[in-house]
Design goal:
Largest sheet: 5 strands, mixed
Distance between the termini: 44 Å
Strand order of the largest sheet: 3-4-2-1-5
Number of strands: 5
Order of helices and strands: HEHEEEHHEHHHHHH
Structural class: alpha+beta
Strand content: 5-15%
Number of domains: 2
Radius of gyration: 21 Å
């Protein structure tokens, strides 16, 4: 018999974090989208002076991802997530299920998270946008010329990720990785996001790049259009890899 993940999370909190200021269960188990193999994503706010860390454990047979932090650590992590344009911890606190709340700490953390999410991520700086445009233009050329199916699939993965990044930046929307890439993409722009995802799927299924090329070209135009000749970067101090243009 599968155990109720919320009940499991409550038992874990009682067992390991009885003195926590606040505990929030996030992810699929908090929204009812969990499966039998879903892990538990749990944010734990502890007193200042404790250790902020991320830890993976197994509890009652289920994998648990713990995000443990002090108030000072929480503020720092929110800032780091915002700079990375992901807002992971902010989303956990803003949408998660409160399991423990000492003197309103969970509510204060949620308010701070919601404020950050409303503000949105910082825009990519112009030089980074140019580098993304250059790398994406080059990748589209490779996709047109690709004769090897495996190489085409590899290039298509890069195209999907970079185009999604530029589209989310255009809307000042949060980005995501893995399963969160399509979710964030559809939140940012349902029409163009769906066209990009469908184009990628069609290439993977049939090898036809046409729909992916069309969807990506539209997104590239939003960011300033293709960029080939005229692109120039100087290396000062730490030298970035030339592969940075293909990230």
């Amino acid at each position: 018999m599968n155990q109720n993940p919320v009940d499991q999370a409550r038992r874990l909190v009682r067992d390991r974090f009885p003195e926590a200021l606040a505990v929030v269960l996030a992810g699929s188990t908090a929204t009812g989208r969990d499966t039998a193999g879903s892990d538990l994503d749990i944010a734990v706010l502890i007193e200042d002076g404790g250790e902020s860390c991320r830890e993976t454990i197994r509890f009652e047979g289920r994998v648990v991802e713990l995000f443990v932090h002090t108030w000072a650590g929480l503020v720092e992590l929110f800032a780091t997530d915002a700079a990375a344009r992901r807002g992971v911890l902010q989303s956990m606190y803003a949408t998660g299920l409160v399991l423990l709340d000492s003197n309103g700490a969970a509510g204060r953390a949620r308010s701070l998270a919601e404020e950050g999410l409303r503000t949105g991520p910082p825009a990519l700086d112009p030089a980074t946008v140019e580098t993304r445009r250059y790398g994406l233009t080059d990748a589209l050329d490779d996709l047109v010329d690709a004769a090897d199916r495996i190489e085409a699939l590899a290039v298509a993965g890069f195209v999907l990720g970079t185009a999604a990044d530029l589209l989310c930046d255009h809307h000042r929307a949060w980005i995501g990785g893995g399963k969160w890439l399509p979710r964030r993409l559809m939140e940012a722009d349902p029409e163009r996001g769906a066209a990009l995802l469908e184009g990628h799927l069609r290439l993977c299924e049939s090898g036809d790049p046409t729909a992916l090329l069309d969807a990506t070209s539209e997104i590239l135009d939003l960011a300033g259009g293709p960029l080939r000749e005229g692109y120039r970067r100087t290396w000062n101090g730490a030298i970035d890899s030339v592969a940075a243009a293909r990230r």
